[in-house]
Amino acid sequence: MYQTPHAAPCRMEFDVAPFRLSGAVYGVLLNHAPALAAMEAAAHKPPYNTAPVAPVLYIKPRNTLAGHGDAIVVPGDAPELEVGACLGIVIGRTACGVPEGQAMQHVAGYTIVGDISVPHDSFYRPSVRFKARDGFCPIGPRVVPRSEIDDPDALAVRVHVDGALVRQATTGERIRPVARLLAEVSAFMTLSPGDVLLLGASAGAPRVRAGQRTRIEIDGLGQLDNHFVAEGALP
């Protein structure tokens, strides 16, 4: 019988309005310029035919949420998982049709998010079963107020697996930096206080198997630790 991790990160409280997460998390694909450049040839072939001209979104539903220190189940039909290290933009004020120049006024703060997925080749429309398994969105360990981060588009990101540094990147090189991304997304959908919008993972997300541990570090935000267990291994 499938067993889910124990997690309730939507209850994670922080010191600025709206004081807790709503549980709604929106991911963004292909926002890292080098990642898009690497798939340039594939982007111009069917069924895509062209590179995206607007943000490519997907949802990490409530069942995916996990917290700092939680176990993440590696499903029996997926021997390894990808760990996408993301900056989470926590919405502080309702954002609907927000101009880019005013977008940052709608940000409460930032957190670390692990965008976990089953490895796949679908660039624009990944199947829900690849991105939305139970526990596939650990968040934490806290929300850092916007005022404490000078430039969210220039933060160092590091991923460790079993204590070894396996990936270094930054929140830079984005097709849509934080303010522009928030403006373009809010142009067609309302973001509510406590929602989390992911800036998107960098190219080259590391892979892990059951029995391994990860640590995602983003400068100024701390570290998000998780461990991976085989399906059926949780008590």
How would you summarize what this structure contains?
10% of the residues lie in helices and 34% in strands.
What this model shows, in words?
By secondary structure, the protein is mostly beta strands. It has one domain: Alpha-Beta Complex (Fumarylacetoacetate hydrolase, domain 2). Helix content is 10%, strand content 34%. The protein contains four helices and 13 strands. Strands 1, 2, 3, 5, 6, 7, 10 and 11 form an eight-stranded mixed β-sheet that branches. A five-stranded mixed β-sheet has the order 4-13-12-8-9, with no helix packed on it.
Rg of Cα set = 17 Å
Give the class from helix and strand content and strand pairing: mainly beta
Largest sheet at a glance?
8 strands, mixed
Ranges where pLDDT stays below 50 over 5 or more residues in a row are 1-8
Query: If you average the pLDDT, what whole number results?
Result: 89
* Strand residues, percent: 25-35%
Q: Would you identify the CATH H-level superfamily?
A: Fumarylacetoacetase-like, C-terminal domain
Question: What is the number of independent domains?
Answer: 1
Helix content: under 10%
The ordered H/E elements are EHHEEEEEHEEEHEEEE
Coarse morphology: globular
How many helices? The count is: 4
CATH top level class name:
Alpha Beta
Number of strands: 13
Per the CATH scheme, the topology name is Fumarylacetoacetate hydrolase, domain 2
The name of the CATH architecture is: Alpha-Beta Complex
Distance between the ends: 12 Å
